[in-house]
Every structure is written in C-alpha cells, then in structure tokens.
Amino acid sequence: MYNLAKLYYPITARPDGAGEFIPCKALQPYIRCFWGTTGEMDGLNVGPEAQPDQPPSALTRLEMIIPDTCMDIIWEWEAASGAAGGFFCGINDTPFEVGASGTPETKIRFAIRFHFWAVHLFADDHLKDVLNFSGEVEQYFRSFRRELGDRLPETRTLGERIAAAEHYLLRRLDQSRMSNNGLMNAIHTILHHKGVVAASGLESSTGLSSRQLERLFREYIGISPKKTADLVRFQNVWLNLCRPSPHIRNVQDLVYAFGYSHQSHLNNSFKRYAGRTPLEALAYARQ
C-alpha cells in the first residue's frame, strides 16, 4: 500500500504537548501514533500524568479535542488490580472538551490512533456508524481484549506496550482489503489537494460515480467524500497556522491557498471544527 501518511499529518488542538510515539515503519501507512501513560509502573505510581501533588487546576483543566480525522482505541486498566476495559472513538466532526475528575489518576492508559483510511484494514465490521461514536472496543474489534487488551496490564513501560501493540496490529492487518483501488485513489486525491477538491475531481481520478464514492466512503470511513475533504482541509489549515511555511505568511495566504471565498469564510469554517477562531486556537495551543 502506498504510504498516504507522507501526504498528510493531522495534529491535535495542542500539538506540542500531545505525547505521541510514531509506530514502526511497516505500520506508518496505517497508524498515526501511539499515546498514553508514560514511565514504569510501580503500584499506584502511574507516571507524570497522575502525580497527586499537582495543583487542583492541573487536575481539572479541560482539554479541547478537535476533529483530527483519526480514530482511536483507548485501553485503560487499574494500576492496583489490573481490571481493564476500553473504548473505540470513531471519526468526529465536532470539537468537544474533556477533563480530569479532580482526583489523582489511578488508571494506566494506552491508545492506538489510526489514520482514517486504514481502520477498515483492522476492524471486524463496516464503519458506517462511527461518526462521533465512542463505545466499546468489541463492537468493531471483537478479539482485541483477548489478543492485546488483557495482556497490556502485564507490561511495565510504554515501550513494552508499543511493542505488543505493533505485534497485534501486524498480525491483524488484512491485506485482502487493500485492493479497493477506487476508494484509495479518491483518498489520495483528497490528501494530495489538501482537501481542496470538488466531487467532479474525485470522479475523474477514480472512474467511479458520486453514488459509488458515497457508498464506499460511508462503509469504510463513516462519512461522505465531501465531509472527508472538509476535515482534511481544516487540518491542513490548522497545520499551516501552527507551523507556517514560507509560502503562507498570513491569513490571506490561507484564504487563497485553501479555496475560501474570503477571510470570514475561513474563520467560520475553522470555528465550526475547532470551536475557536484561528487566533484563539493558536493562543490555546501555546498555553
């Protein structure tokens, strides 16, 4: 499979503090990153995310989650008992906030973040209903608990967990599903054009009708081709705001580069996905 990740690098609302770990080369076309609790496990000492001497504001601070086009398996277990469980987060198209409970964390967390075009290569079911979904891992990955989840509490470091996850993912990767050239060509076109592509462009690049593309995207990604392109465009705008390139020096350059009709159009579109204006989002990211 061509490594589409070379064309696209989605980021979070606070990209410099994301604590992401890149997978092995064989998985990079499919897995955006791993993330979770760091450090060795020793009783209830579960690393820097859960030190009880943090001030209350650090324990209760809300974190903004923005649409990054990725999907995550998040697995957690009690440090003391090893009781484990987790959930799968599908692709989302709205921003929301999450926060700590205000008490010291006693759970260890490990997560696998998939690129949106690759989840169907590992899942057991279609992805028609994953938009803004958060539910049991077993609904889409029936053997996850047996093959990986129940083994994670036996690990002591994030490195050990990543190694176990990579072994699981390489074994699960369904090569037979990679032959859907129409879908992958459409995704390549969207990524290559940074989300600035019309339906006619997708049809000409794939030889498929708009109805066929709609069916494929909803079955294998969970959203329409247009929504996919909109989210990819948003992510590219956000990346250029956070990490400006020599070709884009101001907001007007973004308006032109990403096909917006005017600055207000860009601001309104951006705020729909980020929950903030571009300047407010940058201020949040730098906190």
Automatic annotation (TrEMBL):
UniProt keyword annotations, A-Z:
DNA-binding, Transcription, Transcription regulation
From what superkingdom does this record's organism come?
A: Bacteria
Q: Indicate whether DNA-binding appears among the record's keywords.
A: yes
* Chain ranges passing through the membrane: none
Quote the InterPro entries the UniProt record gives.
AraC_XylS_family_regulators, DUF6597, HTH_AraC
Query: What are the HTH araC/xylS-type domain coordinates in residue numbering?
Result: 181-284
Q: Does the keyword Transcription apply?
A: yes
Gene3D superfamilies in the record, alphabetically?
A: Homeodomain-like
Q: Record's SMART domains?
A: HTH_ARAC (SM00342)
Q: Name one Pfam family in it.
A: DUF6597
PANTHER family recorded: HTH-TYPE TRANSCRIPTIONAL ACTIVATOR RHAS (PTHR46796:SF13), HTH-TYPE TRANSCRIPTIONAL ACTIVATOR RHAS-RELATED (PTHR46796)
Q: What is this protein called?
A: HTH araC/xylS-type domain-containing protein
What species does this protein belong to? Paenibacillus auburnensis
